[in-house]
Amino acid sequence: MEKQTFSEKLKAGKFVITSEIGPPKGTNIEPHLKEAEHIRDKIDAFNVTDLQSSVMRLGSLATCRLLIERGMEPVFQITCRDRNRLALQSDLLSAYVLGVRNVLCLTGDHTTLGDHPDAKPVFDLDAVSLLKVATDLMNGKDMKGNDLDGKPEFFPGAVVSPGYEPVELQIIKMEKKIEAGAKFFQTQAVYDLNSFEKFMKMVEKYNVPILGGIVLLKSAGMAKYMNEKVAGVSVPDRYINMMAQAKKEERVKVSVQIAAELIKGMKNLCQGIHIMPLGWEKYVPLVLEASAL
Q1: CA nearest neighbour of 136 among 105, 173, 174
Q2: For residues 186 and 104, is the Cβ–Cβ distance under 8 A?
Q3: pLDDT tens per residue across span 253-287
Q4: Contact at 8 Å (CB) between 125 and 88?
Q5: Which of 22, 81, 166, 169 has minimal Cβ neighbours within 10 Å of its Cβ?
Q6: Which of 103, 88, 196 lies closest to 156, judged by CA?
Q7: C-alpha closest to that of 137 among 127, 148, 128, 126
Q8: What is the pLDDT of residue 3?
Q9: CA distance 239 to 191
Q10: Cα angle 156-191-210, degrees, rounded to a multiple of 5
Q11: In terms of Cα–Cα distance, which of 64, 161, 60, 50 is closest to 109?
């Protein structure tokens, strides 16, 4: 029996688990592939970040292809920050030819946040218009309506931030993304289950699979930073205190405990989870074990 794909699992109503691979700043990809191999049987697909936080790294598309060659299913993150509409369309076609089927369309962080703050940002399109482009390509047309000689088939996705205030603005944007072709959503980090539940009730009418975002807390300082700097993220004092009181050697254990608590609380609210380990990939199996997934 052929293994179900990520999209088939979501369409069948299965609870799915995705994690992230951040390509290296250099060519040493092997440690990252080994981390993926380590959890491949526990994960349904691997998001491959596209120059995460605007830091120059190895490309998402090349990393996706390496995963495919090893029998793992990638989600190709593609951002509008670095490419104009010609390059975005070309990269989407290239991704399909290289075996990529899942595409997560993102606007992208501004270049000023990264390690090349003087780089010229492009932002020719945004996430909504990029989704529309992907949909047009799937219909055999480019942005100008020209016919394609062979068309791709994607499972396009997008992101949403359930904790953003006012949440109505996020829902309006979510509607636009669905209209443009989004078939699934992954969320920004969730730490408040009550507000997440309210959000899920507000968007259940769209009947689109949503994967709740889990970011592993590394310290109390990281939690406070996220509260101050990351829009739509609110880490409760209880979690900040838990991390603050943990000795250095206990931080991983406490972080896993927090993530597991959140995942257990999300299980009946959404269609899956998306784990963003931010360098702590080796602890993902601990999170899944503690979550009884």
Answers
A1: 105
A2: yes
A3: 999 999 999 999 999 999 999 999 888 888 999 99
A4: yes
A5: 166
A6: 103
A7: 148
A8: 87
A9: 9
A10: 20
A11: 50
Distance between CA 8 and CA 282 in Å, rounded? 27
Torsion angle of C-alpha atoms 196, 201, 207, 211, degrees rounded to 10? 10
For residue 281, give every residue at least 6 positions away whose Cβ sits within 8 Å of its Cβ, in sequence order, or none: 19, 20, 21, 32, 35, 36, 39
Is residue 287 within 8 A of residue 260, CB to CB? The reply is yes
Spatial distance between the Cα atoms of 293 and 244, rounded to a whole number of angstroms: 27
Question: Against a cut of 0.90, is the pTM above it?
Answer: yes
* Amino acid (one-letter) located at 85: R
- State the pLDDT at residue 1: 63
Low-confidence stretches of the chain (pLDDT beneath 70): 1
Instruction: Map out the domains of the chain as residue ranges.
Output: 6-290
Question: d(Cα 160, Cα 103) in Å, to the nearest integer?
Answer: 15
In this structure, are residues 81 and 117 in contact, taking their beta carbons and an 8 Å threshold? Answer: no
**Among 6, 30, 29, 9, CA closest to 19:** 6
CB 283 within 8 A of CB 244: no
